[in-house]
């Protein structure tokens, strides 16, 4: 009988080994390349089982009622906060037992107070956030245990948790003092900036996946546009002379290349915007009032190499996605030489970038599909959170120890919401 | 107080508070207006009024002179640069009252090279396209497209062997150039076999030579007859001759027939790569109905579609069920018999150009050849259509989503038999014509220089007869009758050489 036991064990080893071999990807005729960032080949990691998230149940005035008041919040580029909440409520990483949770999520929709034009007003957001934190710290003991170090918040607004749309004002305010120890999941990312703190997770802005899916054209359509861009160059309403908007970079693009036949750039809003991107080799993604924009997501989905013109920007999931190998980075001061820079990229490099962009896990990581699919942006956020585990012993405060200053910040923020 | 004003004016996303936020925000949240704030307000208002008059931001100038310390921001230029110029300019540095913000910003922005505030718009000295860069970009685009084709286009494309019968006539240049350009665009390897009735001529050779394609130019020693019936027969013979050439040379690829008067779409060349042995595509027939439109429309509207199509017909399970052929009944008795007839030119029942062959079926050692294809050498007499090459017509493969896609069009437009044209369409020596126009608004120009136009008579004739368009862009001439030739005034005109 002994020998049969050994045969059985040998068979198990063999089966285990075979199962580990990569499943053959059928139906994908375009050769793609694996994406390895500084965190390794992690785009396809599965966070389920690696972390547990407890979702606080807040009164509906913090989330449902706000959404009811203005359902446009589901379609604009800050909609990630709402979809993340929905995803976590039904995700297998959610736990109902807070004692075993690694991370705590507070569903408060701070970017849903919209003007008639659809732009979010950040003026009440600090008070809303503060009120939510006061609520969770008084009703549950977990906030006070670590003063928020194992809590994460979604702040997809222009400058993240600085809660202002003007950069000068945002820098002046700084990150909300109560969020100093929490992990922030935000779209804004710029190195050495007040509004990006150490350990934040950058996510892409929300782009509607179904809308992009319906505008796909056959892949054999030849790419005949060299550089493509649609958008403002001068923000005439707020900065007519130029120089403030986009730090003058967009205006420089226009002035230098407006008569260049290789650059298909204009301020129009064509209905064939998505189709045109699929016929272009390079898509410009310059900064605007904030360095990030949904153009990056669109360029990745449509296979157009993004040309990022934003100094010191931190791109989404920067530790998992090797953006240097996928996109082209141009300093703002080099914008007048953009055509020389782009035409001097060797063709093999361009073809390689296109292969990396064609990788379906790359496209999936930029999207927030409903219902969630494996490898999408929700899962990348969870992967990022999982990589930060286990929490350091030092985040757990001794009873009675206080670090946060609850009265810091402008006087206006202290008013109750 | 200032804050609420900001909130109210949020219709513009970032309101014009940049300037107003300067001196007034120094006392940001306090509602008390200190005397300095009031002073700045009045001063600022004054500067605004002056700016309105002068047309540029006067306040900047004053502040620049008052606070001319060296900022960490972009370098500034003398005030002449305030007026926009097109050379590299750095506009005056950011809001000088950022001075007051400096200590605040400096302590929060540690070693960042990105600064907030106003930046210059960098323009290079010659902001126009550089032709070298443009060429490099086009090469990159070509490489990208080639890669796309190799991934999503046809895998392992086979050589396309094109058979074209032709002969020298007025419309030959028109038709042949059209076909030539279509063939030049085909991304696959191509061999063009041109069979010419009446022997090899320089005319045809000169047109073909411009293509840059691999061509085989062969002569056929009969001349083109004048009746359409006989012409079709001769063309069939010429095509079979080309097939024999393919057989001799053992060319490998896909044989298609491109008549020089046809129009081909680019998808056709991708679609024919799917042929295994013998395939058929749908051909759109553009019949140039002359004077028969009314008759045809009444009777045949329900039976015939507007533009008839010749090609394979499939049943519901996408198998070949029959053939769509051209219905000649409405034109019975009214079709053109000779070239010069002003009547409708009809196609044959099934045109050669709708069929595609695998060249291996023509080879002598027909080991691979299926049984239902005949050997060319066994053909006695002529064949009317390529279906004569197959024993079993039901084995023909339908292409173009089973004949539903029309990938090429048949159209026959020819000039009269006696129509002449300048050899190789080169007018040499230059024309010296003498035709006063009858109905133009321009008065007849006075006779200018000398008069010598005798040697050009031979070439003048046909041009006057047919009133074809002259190549030199000049006044339109009305139709001329023979009688008025005696009235010609002598003018000299030079027409440009082609």
Automatic annotation (TrEMBL), chain A:
Residue ranges of domain Exostosin GT47 in the record: 50-345
A GO biological process held by the record: plant-type secondary cell wall biogenesis
Gene Ontology MF term list: 1,4-beta-D-xylan synthase activity; glucuronoxylan glucuronosyltransferase activity
Coiled coil: none
UniProt cross-references to InterPro entries, sorted A to Z: Exostosin, Exostosin_GT47
Family: Belongs to the glycosyltransferase 47 family.
Protein name: XYLAN SYNTHASE-1, IRREGULAR XYLEM 10
Lineage of origin: Eukaryota, Viridiplantae, Streptophyta, Embryophyta, Tracheophyta
TrEMBL record, chain B:
Bilayer topology: Single-pass type II membrane protein
Membrane-traversing stretches: 37-56
GO BP: any one term: plant-type secondary cell wall biogenesis
EC number per UniProt: 2.4.-.-
Keywords assigned by UniProt, alphabetized: Cell wall biogenesis/degradation, Glycoprotein, Glycosyltransferase, Golgi apparatus, Membrane, Signal-anchor, Transferase, Transmembrane, Transmembrane helix
Region (Disordered): 436-498
Principal location listed in the UniProt entry: Golgi
PANTHER family named among the record's database cross-references: BETA-1,4-XYLOSYLTRANSFERASE IRX14H-RELATED (PTHR10896:SF17), GALACTOSYLGALACTOSYLXYLOSYLPROTEIN 3-BETA-GLUCURONOSYLTRANSFERASE BETA-1,3-GLUCURONYLTRANSFERASE (PTHR10896)
Role description: Involved in the synthesis of glucuronoxylan hemicellulose in secondary cell walls.
UniProt name for this protein: Glycosyltransferases
Taxonomic source organism: Hibiscus trionum (Flower of an hour)
